[in-house]
Structures are given as structure tokens and as C-alpha cells.
Amino acid sequence: MEEPRTNQQLPPNVNIQDYINVDVPQEPAQQNGTQNNSRNEPFSSDQEEVDERIDLALFKGATNIIRLFVPVTLCMIIVVATVTSATNYTQSSGTFFYTPLSEKSSTGAARFGISLANTLIFLSVVIVMTVVLILLYKFSCYKIIHGWLIVSSLLLLFLFALIYWGQVLERYNVPMDYLTTALVIWNFGVPGMACIHWKGPLRLQQLYHIIISSLMALVFIKYLPDWTTWVLLALISVWDLVAVLCPFGPLKILVETAHERNEQIMPGLIYSSTMAWIVNAADDVPAAQGGNTETHRLEGRTNPNFGVDSNQTADVPAQNNQGDNANNNSQLAMRSLSSESVEEERGVKLGLGDFIFYSLLVGKASSYGDWNTTLACFIAILIGLSLTLFLLAIFKRALPALPISIFFGLIFYFATSQIVKPFMTRTAAHQVFI
Amino acid sequence: MTIKEFFGCAFLAFGPAVSLFIFVVGREPIRVILFIASSFFWLIALLISSLLWFAVVPLREKLAFGLVFSVLFQEASRLAYYKLVQKAENGLQKMMQDGQAGADEDSKQIKFIKNHHLMALVCGLAFGMTSGAFALVNILSASVGPGTVGIHGDSDHFFITSSLLTFAFVMLNTFWQVISYAALDKKSYWQVGVVVIFHLLASCLTLLNNRDPPIYAATITPAYVLLIISGIWAFVVAGGSLSGIKAFCGF
User: Which residues cross the membrane (chain A) (predicted)?
Assistant: First the structure.
């Protein structure tokens, strides 16, 4: 690792252990490392101070949690609105390339077996693709990775958007000629490509990430068989857990490699609450607070369908402020600039895959027409997300965002649709209020 | 017509609550988290009561049984949430001190943490809105149509009465939370008991809607009387007074 990087690298590596073991010689390095660090009270080896710091780090996440609530909610709203209004989205047509077995005409155990088989096929594709991606990354085949990512987002932004547009038009019975459609799709897709892979306003980039995720989730809702979806949700969160936390989990390797190389994780795969990749901030704004520029990483997965990756990784330096972003935009510095100007990325990140599977769960729940179930799943997922972020603040390392949320979501889906729904239907019908 | 009815009912039931949410809760991250967590607690209470209702097969047709236990579970989860918030309070305070905003903003935030009434309001609003949403959301989605209300001789005031009662319950839950949290702070437990009785009373009275034909006057009137009593009570508990109102209005 070359010289300047050592300094840069220091803050991300700070973890609880560092707080406790921190000693005087390290202090100057810490303060030179990043400008914003020097603004904060110096580290102290005093035990009470240390405890204080841990507590501070622990509870700093409120704003970050909200930063993720909004986009996750938006993504779910798009999916749920589409599923409930455009009913042709719920009539599954044909089978998916990755889930070849049809659930129709089988019941009970046989159906469960088929959905399990489907899920395993799907999951093995996911695993293979993830491993391929990680290998490419490990051996620095950036060209191939970028090509892959660009093709994926190209497909999503043009083909899937076209399918979506077609479905919506069909639902509302609106005729539209090819020329207009082409114009609409072109004007939708090209800014999206620019925002995701090159540069663009942060808000627009976030919006495109949300749209991409909801398009993907809608495709899943349309093509995945009923039971397969639920089995898939359960197994994919287990895979998520394994991939991020196991010693040789591919996503753990990805995150660590990216860390070692001091790079951002690939564009088009993660939603970030601040400008995080391609352009970095040459930040001379006194970055508010947070001496501990701890980097949390949240999770990752690769999930290839039509070659689309929805890898997710989130870095959560627990602090960032809105004011900074505005300033940053005017002071963009390309990543290729020397490392001094490359400020450590700040803000919360959540993989697009998380968005996809959250929305998949909520969308699928809403497709049966009961709003109580949808609401319950929504609340459960948000609670799971906040718990994950709190855990993130404690463990300060990459964490899978799916398991807790999806676990809660699944429990509340089945409990609500089987038990709560009849109760609430009855009370509502009799106008009895509890 | 159905669309109009939908919007009318939706705004009637949730208009005030949503505006409270926007002005009181929405801007502050910490309040949003409290809000979501609180609705999760309500959801758990609902789940437990549904489980009980579902498990006791012979009494499934008798809503009164499920209702009483549901009220008790809701009150229990209200208390449980109070305990949780109390425990988290220190942490929350630290979070605020370390918050994103400047010193000015900080002191405002800490005031919020210190201001238990405001916190109770946020949590109560979450309780009320979640319960209201669960009670009404399916009815609302049905109200868009297609269909005709009361074609089989039922009351054609079904939607409007449901919305009125939902509104009452959303607000009642909010007030009750303020009252019972203040009572728990002061350790005057009889007030908590009164809140439970109020809740039981309001809920059990809605059982009258079950009759054929429903006597709406007998359910909506007491619900709104309770609403006014609880509202005034909560106002007084939160430190309001007549002279305060006068001063506020500039008399």
C-alpha cells in the first residue's frame, strides 16, 4: 500500500477495538488523515470517553435510517401501486428462464418441492454469477465488469422500461404509436445511463436506482411462480447472510478487496444517500461531526437475471449532512484525482438487491388484494431495516440487509394473511373497532 | 361518485392524523423511528390478539371475546413501549447531542427528548394511525367500487360511519397515549386504569354496530363524547389551561 493511502485508510478501519486501543502516537495520523477529523475532540484513551464514543457511534444512525426509509418506501410504493392497479402484472404469464418448473396443476407437498427446486436453480445461478463477478474483480478485470454492468442497466432502463410502459398502456387501454414510445423510452433511458455510469445530479441518480429496482421487482412478481417467490425470499436472505458474513463469502471478499484498493464498489449496484462513486467530493466544508469516520458496510449480493446484477453493499460512515451534498456538487472532483482530494465516502448505502427483494415481498403481499397484509409487511421491513442499521452501528462492518427484514416480512406476511386478516375482515365488516 | 366517497372517507378518517404526522413527526428522523417502532408494537398486539381469537375456535363467532382481549393486549403493548422508550431515552439523548444539526437545533432536539408529552403524542399517533389504517384500509379500497352500498338492505351509511369511528379511534389512541405516559411518569396508576377502561368502553360500544339494523347514534355519540373528554384531559395533562388558550389567541 503506498504512502498517502495509509492515511486515507485509517479512518475506515477504525472500529471499536481501535477506539479502545487508541494511543497518543496515533493521534497525529488521525488528525492528518482527513480534514474533518481534526475538527473533533481528540481521541482519548480514558475509558469513560471510550464508552461515550461507542454510545455516540451507536446512536448516530437516526438520520441514516431515515435516509434509507424514504427510498425504500418510494420503491415499494411504485411496485405496490403498479401491482394493485395494473392487474395484468399479477397474472403470471409463462415461466422464467431461471425458474423453469411450473407450479401449476400440483398441490401441497409436490408444489412445495417444485418451488424449492425452482429456488435452488435460481439461487445457484445467483451464486455462480456472484462468484464470477468477484473473480473478475479480484483479478481487476474492470473493463469486463463495467461492460457487464452497463449492459445490465441498459437492459433494465430500455427493455424493462419498455415492457413496463407496455403493460401500463395495456391496462389503461391507451393506444400509442411506436415513434412516441421510442421517444419516451429514449428520453427515459439515456439520462438514466448517464446518471448511473457517468455523472448527474444526486437526486436523479437516486431516482434512477429506485426505478431500476422497482422494475426488476415487478419483473420478478410477474414471472416468478407463487410459492417459488416465498421460498426464494427465505433462501436468498440465508445466502445473503452467508455471502456477507462467512470467511470466504464472496461479498465479504468483494468488500474487503474494495477496501484494500480504496475503491468504491461498482456503480449501478448500490443506492447511496450521498454522492459516492465516480465523482468524489473535494470537501473543504467543515464536515460537521463524527470524529470516528467509521465505515460500515451493509451487505451485498449479486443476483443475475437477464444478466442483471443487483449487488449490494453499503458503506455507512454514520455521519453526513445534507448541506455538504449541495456544496459537494459544486466542487466535484473526479476520482482519478490524487488521493488527498478523495474524501472518504460518506452516507448510507444499500444494495439495489435489497430494494428489489423488499419490494418483491411487499408487492407480492399486495398482489393478493389485502391491504392489511401489505401494511404489515411494510412496517415489518422498515423495522428490520432499522434493526440492521443499529447492528451496523454496533458491529461496524459489512452486514447483510436482507435477513432481518425479510424474516420479519415473511413472518408478518403469513401471520397477517392467515390469522389477522380473517379477524380484521370480520371486525371491519361488523364495524367493530378494537 | 365512488371516487368522491373514497376521498371523502379517507380524508375524514386520516386527514387530521396525517397533518399531525407531517407537521410533528415527518421532519425529525428520531420521531419517524419512534413512530415506526410504535406502530410495530401495535402490530404485535394485533397479531397476539388475532392469534388468541384464531386459536379459541368456539368463540370465533363472538367478536366481543376477541375485542376485549385485543384491547387488553393493546394497552399492554402501550406499557411495554413506554418501558422501551424509557430505556432508550439516554441513548436517544446522546444521539441528539451528536446529531447532524448545529447547537441550536441540538437543544431543540434534546427538548423533544425531555418533552415526554411530545414523545407520547408521536407514539400515540403511530398507535392510532396504524390501528385506523388496519381498520379502514380494506374498506377504503372497496369503496372505490365497483359496487352498490346497502343493496341487500344494509345501511348505506356504512363507509361514512366507519370513517367517523376510525377518526375517533385514531385521535383517542393519541390522547390515551399522552395521558397514560404522563400518568406513568408521575406513577399515578389509576389514570392508566381509567385509560384502559375508556378503551374498553369505546371499543365495546362499537359492538352495537353489530346489531341489525345498527344503531349508529348509540356508537358514534359516545365515541365522540369520550374523544372530547380524553382530548381535554390530555390537553390538561400536557400542561394546557384555559388561560393558556386565551394567551395563545391573544385575548
Answer: 68-89, 109-136, 148-166, 178-198, 207-224, 230-251, 374-395, 401-420
CB A246 within 8 A of CB A127: no
A283, A309, A324, A354: the catalytic one is A354
Which residues, other chains included, contact B134 with Cβ-Cβ below 8 Å and sequence gap of 6+?
A372, A375, A424, B46
Q: What residues have CB less than 8 Å from A346, skipping those under 6 apart? A: A274, A276, A287, A293, A317, A319, A320, A324
Crossing angle between the packed helical segments A178-197 and A202-223, to the nearest 10 degrees: 120
Please tell me whether residues A266 and A175 are part of one structural domain. Answer: yes
What is the Cα A301 distance to its own chain's centre?
Answer: 9
Q: DSSP labels for A63-89?
A: HHHHHHHHHHHHHHHHHHHHHHH-GGG
Residue A119: inside a domain, yes or no? no
Which residues in chain A are closer than 8 Å to B63, comparing Cβ atoms? 426-427, 430, 432
Residues from chain A contacting residue B92 (CB–CB below 8 Å): 59
Tell me, yes or no, whether A165 and A311 share the same domain. no
Q: Are residues A137 and A247 in the same domain?
A: yes
pLDDT at A332 over 60: no
> Does one domain contain both A261 and A141?
yes
A40 → chain B, closest CA residue: B98
Question: Could you tell me which residues come within 8 angstroms of residue A111 by beta carbon, excluding any fewer than 6 positions away?
Answer: A103, A227
Are A162 and A294 part of one and the same domain? no
A434 assigned to some structural domain: no
Amino acid letter, residue B206: T
Nearest CB among B53, B131, B214 relative to A431 is that of B214
Same domain assignment for residues A251 and A321: no
> Given an 8 Å threshold on Cβ–Cβ distance, is B40 in contact with A383?
yes
Residues of chain A by 3-state class (helix, strand, coil), percent to 5: 65, 5, 30
CB contacts of B53 in chain A (<8 Å) are: 423
pLDDT band for A342, please (50, 70, 90 cuts).
very low
B161 → closest Cβ in A320, A322, A431: A431
Number of domains within chain B: 1
Residue B223 has pLDDT above 60, yes or no: yes
Q: Is the pTM above the cut of 0.80? A: no
B91 burial via Cβ count (<10 Å: 0-12, 13-18, 19+): middle
C-alpha cell read off for B123: 407514539
CA distances from B75 to A17, A250, A427, B80, B132 (A): 42, 47, 19, 9, 16
Strand, coil or helix: A211 = helix
Q: What percent of chain A lies above the pLDDT cut of 90?
A: 14
Residue A271 φ/ψ, nearest 5 degrees: -90, 135
The string of pLDDT tens digits covering residues A155-207 is 888 988 998 888 888 888 888 899 999 999 999 999 988 888 887 888 888 89
Answer yes or no: A283 catalytic. no
Q: Tally the residues of chain A.
A: 434
Report helix, strand or coil for B40. helix
Which tens digit of pLDDT belongs to each residue from A247-280?
888 888 887 887 788 776 666 677 776 544 333 3
C-alpha cell at A120: 435452488
Question: Is the domain of A246 the same as that of A169?
Answer: yes
Q: Does B37 touch chain A (CB under 8 A)?
A: yes
Q: What ipTM describes this predicted complex?
A: 0.89
Burial environment of residue B27 by CB neighbours within 10 A (0 to 12, 13 to 18, 19 or more): exposed
Q: Is B138 within 8 Å of A382 when comparing Cβ atoms? A: no
∠ CA B28-B30-B31, rounded to 5°: 70
A46 is catalytic: no
